[in-house]
Design a protein that fits this description.
single chain; alpha/beta; Rossmann fold; six-stranded antiparallel beta barrel; five-stranded parallel sheet; 15 helices; elongated; binds manganese (II) ion
Length: 496
């Protein structure tokens, strides 16, 4: 599985020959210090590689083309320490195919009022050098984000780390493969979509595998492989007391067997996400429940009923949040609490919710499943951890994709769920339940989503800019009238 640390970013400093060799030496010295300090920051998730000072059009074009073809490079970070005439950047920027961040920073923090002279002014001029660069990237409509502030500032580094995580997930997405066992659920619209366009726009490929391909691997899983996975389950989860413990353990072992087989197939095919469909389980004894949940906990993307778009988004957001506090799961808006003053949304799924979002110790339980006509599946049951997060959905609007997010506050349920045999999270969506729900439905986003408590909306703002996909956010400031306008304006902007 790809890790964030597999990637790096190239640091490009723009300048020109006008200031003489001494000034350029200082530009280089300062840039190297900035790169070193950023690399030493605990927040920065992957290595930044210093590249030489760029002072003319051929060297800029050559460096950007080299960044494009370096498969470990997840993007370029540009900084104009001095003034770098932007016509020199046109050929390079035209070729750019990697994410780009412009940092508008400065080597010094304080203006040295008493000592500064024109040499100082000529060296420390990112205040206008970065504006020249901003003009050309704006004029050429290059996808980019700008982060301003001193490079040692905590907020600056936090935002830079967010952008880097978003860029890494976007670049990894260009070769993301989502294995589909079966098609999407019959007659369901929102889980379907244009797989070719997803590959063109996001790089996602969605290969189909017959369930028989999986069953073949399931049948070859050994008892000792199952034994060691059961030990892993026991470390992380409680196994609930069952009336018939032998039957329950048998069902849990069956899920372990399915998990091992799915992971083998994913690894063999270089895939990091998958979907299942309870209408297509020929030869499998149970609907994969615990198996999907534990694979999600390992970092794989997953969604039910053939929903490959959500599976891809689960994998994408898991990668963005790698190593951060909080979790990320496939989720479904299930049922509401509509009591006055206590309007909540209960998210769950038939079985498959990722234990990374759990607030209590998850428990493995075996219960019958009314749908699908298969043997009682083992699943992990828990309550979602209270705290802030957001739900995210990617919608296929026919000619393009749209990402919809909603900030939510996950809460502890006011009463115990005594009989509900699936993992769940109860949340209070922002700005309030009614506005959020109406906006979500107006946006066309469906019942499946990705719930993350490891990230905030800024990651999606960076990500949507990099992949050039619309992002409609439902947050504390949303009103329906403004949201409808945004929807319609965006339809105009994104019209092809
Ligand atoms: Mn579903």
């Amino acid at each position: 599985m790809k890790r964030i640390s597999d990637y790096n970013f190239w640091f490009l400093t723009g300048s020109q020959h006008l200031y003489g060799e001494d000034a350029l030496k200082n530009v280089e010295k300062n840039s190297k210090i900035i790169v070193e300090k950023l690399n030493n920051s605990k927040q920065i998730p992957c290595r930044i590689i210093y590249k030489e000072i760029l002072v003319d059009s051929p060297s800029i074009e050559k460096t950007i083309k080299a960044a494009n073809s370096d498969e470990n490079c997840a993007g370029i970070i540009c900084w104009m320490h001095t003034f770098s005439p932007a016509k020199m950047w046109i050929n390079g920027l035209r070729a750019l195919s990697k994410p780009m961040l412009q940092i508008n920073t400065q080597f010094n923090i304080k203006i040295p009022y008493k000592t500064m002279d024109m040499d100082f002014m000529n060296l420390n001029q990112s205040a206008h050098g970065d504006r020249e660069f901003g003009f050309i990237t704006s004029r050429m409509d290059i996808p980019r984000s700008v982060i301003a502030g001193h490079y040692e500032n905590k907020l600056f580094q936090t935002r830079m780390a967010k952008w880097m995580r978003a860029a890494t997930a976007a670049v990894a997405g260009r070769s993301l493969s989502i294995v589909r066992f079966g098609d999407n659920m019959r007659d369901v619209a929102v889980t379907d979509g244009d797989k070719i366009e997803a590959m063109v726009q996001l790089g996602w490929s969605v290969p189909y595998y017959g369930i028989g391909d999986l069953v073949e691997i399931v049948n070859k899983v050994t008892e000792s492989e199952i034994d060691s996975l059961i030990e892993e389950y026991k470390k992380d989860y409680t196994i609930a007391k069952h009336e018939n413990p032998d039957f329950a353990m048998n069902q849990i072992r069956e899920q372990a067997k399915i998990e091992i087989a799915i992971e083998k197939l994913l690894i063999e095919n270089n895939a990091e996400a998958f979907t299942t469909n309870f209408q297509d389980l020929h030869g499998l004894n149970q609907l994969p429940g615990l198996a999907c949940q534990h694979l999600m906990a390992k970092g794989y993307g997953f969604a039910g009923e053939g929903d490959w778009k959500t599976a891809a988004m689960v994998r994408t957001l898991k990668m963005m949040g790698e190593g951060l506090d909080g979790g990320c799961s496939f989720m479904e808006d299930y049922t509401y609490n509509l009591e006055e003053g206590k309007l909540y949304n209960l998210g769950a799924h038939m079985l498959e919710v990722c234990p990374s979002i759990a607030g209590d110790k998850p428990s493995i339980e075996v219960h019958p499943l009314g749908i699908g006509d298969k043997s009682d599946p083992a699943r992990i049951v828990f309550n979602g951890k209270a705290g802030e997060g957001f739900t995210c959905s990617i919608v296929d609007l026919g000619t393009r994709f749209r990402i919809v997010t909603n900030d939510v506050e996950i809460i502890d349920a006011p009463e115990k769920f005594e009989k509900l045999p699936v993992a769940r999270a109860l949340w209070n969506p922002l700005p309030d339940f009614l506005t959020s729900t109406e906006a979500w439905i107006l946006s066309g986003a469906g019942h499946h989503n990705t719930l993350t408590t490891a990230l905030d909306i800024e990651y999606i703002e960076f990500y949507s800019e990099i992949v050039r996909v619309e992002h409609l956010a439902i947050d504390k400031n949303t009103t329906i009238s403004q949201f409808r306008k945004e929807d319609r304006w965006n339809r105009g902007y994104y019209a092809k």
